[in-house]
Write a structure and sequence with these properties.
By secondary structure, the chain is α/β, with parallel strands linked by helices. The chain is built from five helices and five strands; from the N terminus they run βαβαβαβαβα. The chain has one domain: Rossmann fold (3-Layer(aba) Sandwich).
Length: about 120
């Protein structure tokens, strides 16, 4: 399973990365829209863990590009805001498969990634 994590906070990103790797996943961690798009231009992924609020760039743009470049890739959105808490993200982003709070325990996030990443 190939996973891309897009998270502006490097400490949180590394925590998620270590937990997802426990499921024998190949994980790449980037911190911005630009880095995510560059990765998606050259690499296949099955699942993307994407912070809804990036410091540099737009998570929606990353998800949109992924839907175009890798239509089978699923996106797990994480956020520390209430934006899209009504579930409307699933209407706007066709490749969204989950929407979790950033405070979700990393082992639970990894289990969600493993579930969606291997269910293809």
């Amino acid at each position: 399973m190939r996973v891309l994590i897009v998270e502006s906070d490097p400490n949180l990103g590394w925590l998620w990365k270590r937990h997802v790797e426990r499921y024998s996943a190949s994980v790449t961690l980037v911190g911005s829209q630009e880095e995510a798009v560059a990765h998606l231009e050259h690499e296949d992924v099955e699942i993307i863990v994407l912070d809804l609020v990036l410091k540099n760039g737009s998570a929606i743009a990353v998800a949109d590009y992924a839907a175009y470049r890798h239509p089978e890739a699923k996106v797990v959105f994480v956020t520390n805001t209430t934006f899209f808490s009504d579930g409307s993200i699933f209407q706007h982003i066709p490749n969204a498969c989950a929407f979790l709070p950033s405070a979700t325990p990393p082992e639970d996030l990894a289990a969600v990634v493993e579930h969606y990443g291997t269910s293809q």
